[in-house]
Amino acid sequence: MRFADRIALVFGAGSSGPGWGNGKAAAVTYARQGARVVAIDLDAGAAEETAGIIRSEGGEAIAVAADVASLASVEAAVAAAISAYGRLDILHNNVGVVLHGGPLDLDEEAFRRNLDINLGSVFRTAKAVLPHFIAAGRGVIVNISSIAAVRWIGYPYFAYYTAKAAVNQATVALAMQYAPHGIRANCVMPGLIDTPLIYRQIASQYASAEEMVAARAKAVPLGRMGDAWDVANAAAFLASDEARFITGVCLPVDGGQTCTMNPVT
């Protein structure tokens, strides 16, 4: 029970389709290890589904709808968490969207919107949560980035690469600036993960979903994609007291892919 008596806010706690997305798995993992969870998602139904799973397993959770592109909405979600539980211990940022295309393919508004969600979410949630962490003299931030922050992975995702690289450095900046307040910040960089999201946002680039799965597995040295639990377990470690001397780290969870030159083909 790593997180007994801890309160975990998980932004992006819903799943984009049937099965286990990274945020949903993270929220349930925190709960299974003792945390009381605030499951936050743009989709109120998805947030409630995750909270319901936690409650069905004997855990404690509330669901909150919020838009990470709005500071007022994020602040309202944090206020709901404080109202329910009185304090905050863990901030987990899982929100992210993929946008296809390079600069010649994207219009300016789409590019800005992608940055605003992938990177702006980290800014807004930190802005809303940090005063509570500073007052408590402790707190943990876990941001979910991507190996796309540091590698070309084979897909034309100019805006996504840009935003996730910025999330990595934003994590380092948070870790260094707020270390004197007892606050740690790290990020997980998932590699090729088998989640509902890839069937909605990536499968259309292939002749079939089976072809996509085979191509992604081939690019990973371990010969398969990871799953949402691999990402959730890494996040839980970084959020736990076992990682109390770890901050400013961007951890690949990728089956070894960042050690190679293997993009998806």
TrEMBL record:
InterPro entries (UniProt xref): NAD(P)-bd_dom_sf, SDR_fam
Swiss-Prot/TrEMBL keywords: Oxidoreductase
Domain of life, source organism: Bacteria
Keyword hit for tRNA-binding: no
Stored SUPFAM superfamilies: NAD(P)-binding Rossmann-fold domains
Enzyme Commission code: 1.1.1.47
Transmembrane segments: none
Gene Ontology terms, MF aspect: glucose 1-dehydrogenase [NAD(P)+] activity
Pfam families referenced in this protein's UniProt entry, alphabetically: adh_short_C2
Gene3D superfamilies attached to this UniProt entry: NAD(P)-binding Rossmann-like Domain
EC class (word): oxidoreductase
PANTHER family registered for this protein in UniProt: DEHYDROGENASES, SHORT CHAIN (PTHR24321), OXIDOREDUCTASE UCPA (PTHR24321:SF15)
Similarity annotation: Belongs to the short-chain dehydrogenases/reductases (SDR) family.
Protein name, per record: Glucose 1-dehydrogenase
